[in-house]
Amino acid sequence: MSKIILKNFLIFLLIFLVIAALFSTYNATAEKPLAVGIDQLITQIQNEEVSQIIVRDAKLEITLNNGKKETSKKESTDSLSTLLKNYNIDPAKMLKVKIDVKENEGFGFWAITLLPIFVPLLLIGVFIYIMMRQVQGANTKAMSFGQSQARELHQKGKSKTTFKTVAGCKEAKEELSEVVEFLRSPKKFLQMGAKIPKGVLLMGAPGTGKTLLAKAVAGEANVPFFSISGSEFVEMFVGVGASRVRDLFKRAKKSAPCIIFIDEIDAVGRQRGAGLGGSHDEREQTLNQILVEMDGMETKINVIVMAATNRPDILDPALLRPGRFDRRIVLDMPDINDREEILKVHAENKPFSADVDLRKVAERTPGFSGADLANALNEGAILAARRNKKSIDQIDILESIEKVLLGPERRSHILNDKEKKITAYHEAGHALIAHELPNSDPVHKVSIISRGHAAGYTLKMPIEDKHLHSRSEFIDELAVFLGGWVAEKETFGEVTTGASNDLMQATKLAKSLITQYGMDEDLGPRTFGEREELIFLGKEIHEQRDYSDKTAEMIDQSITNLISQAQKTAKSILTKHKDQLDKIVEALLKKETLERGDFEALFKK
Ligand code: ADP
Ligand code: ZN
After folding, report:
1. Which of 340, 341, 402, 427 is catalytic?
2. pLDDT score of 564
């Protein structure tokens, strides 16, 4: 703002200087006439040298016969003729002088008289004008504060998102094709007396393609797409959210049929009165306004609200009532076939070498969301470009998967020889136990190159996607977690900090086994503790204890038992196959990274 003021000020200074310059030239061009006294004028008239006298008030402008100009002054009260008479000039000589009496006039005169008044007035006026404009600017900003910041998308031509763009998600697409029908030909349904649903709730972990699907529905139905995130409704001031909702629906109704997409609806649609997070007054008002708008929409108006959330469990039940978000669609993490499809979609217009096998890539990426897969392929393309290749090789993609999975390799993070040896024994411990135990996933890769925070890593991958896990799998998994710790302890007599993350994961797994899966003999088939979050989304916020102190002790004891059992298993395997362990360590120290083939070759006699 101060910049604008400065700029304006400079402009006016410039104009002022130009005007001033103009006046100075105006004065300079007129040849300055000689000022003479009345006596001399009389003498000149007597000598018949004067041809004309112009009288302007008290000022006399005299033109001589020879063309020269002079000025003189008289008293303003006396007229020139009286004056001349008083000097006793011969009337015949007076006749020869042309006398002109003029009022004050002319641009110069007016400019000179008025400018001193007008310039300050003008400056003040301009100043007020600038101030007004700025205040107005602030005003319009304040006015637009309550307007929604929804982005409006009209999809056209080739870049249109359609169901083809979304790979997998078959059931979701089937359900949504109904919504597309509503948008395309609402009459068909209205004639049957059917009410067109107004709200669709998309539920699923981040990156599973909720936004993409909503966009695809708009693309398929060829309607505009308004998108806004739930958190954008909530501002510092109470009432803004509600007014933004009103504005959004007003805009949408104008371009009906259309889709309103509200991402992260949980930001406003949390259970009311839950008291989690600040400003819940504002959230409540916003939520109420959304509900009011949805309820108040006439059936004729074809606006469908799609909302996305990854936390359906915390949504206010009012949102889920019939007539509101009564269509609910769950998007799961893609399985191996879906992953292959998603990879194919994102592989379009990327040059791949002949050796690229997307099925293999899909096999290697259990637990990846659509967004992760897109990201992995993109990283692969970047890697290939940085290596100045003409096309993307399988190896680029596999490396980028590991990067997405574990963080970038840190080759610069060089371990000294001692650390290298410890890390090698640690990772070899994990790998050997994973190899020996029947219920563990096969080892895909072992490495002592540090990645992210880990000094080394052992990558296990299931052969196929698993949806159910058994107790024996978990028990073996616990032994694998402890393999690193035990290997360090057995070889060097003490452990390092490198094992801390393993221990944390082992403890967490043991606890879930007892408290969530009912897999403990003594504690039996029940859960302990109420979690706020759904487990399938993989997060918990806080746990409420619903058991006695005595049970808590038992749980602690069971966790300790499970872990010490795992420790024993690990120890017995590592002592029994000590020579194998040394072999793996030797290979690791030499090559740093062992792929699955190299690793399994070590076990052949
Ligand atoms: P969400 O909204 O669920 O967090 P997005 O819809 O924003 O996830 O997905 C992020 C990106 O991941 C998409 O832009 C797309 O590139 C990719 N993606 C996710 N799911 C799929 C899918 N089923 N098919 C193709 N691409 C997908
Ligand atoms: Zn480890």
Report:
1. 427
2. 95
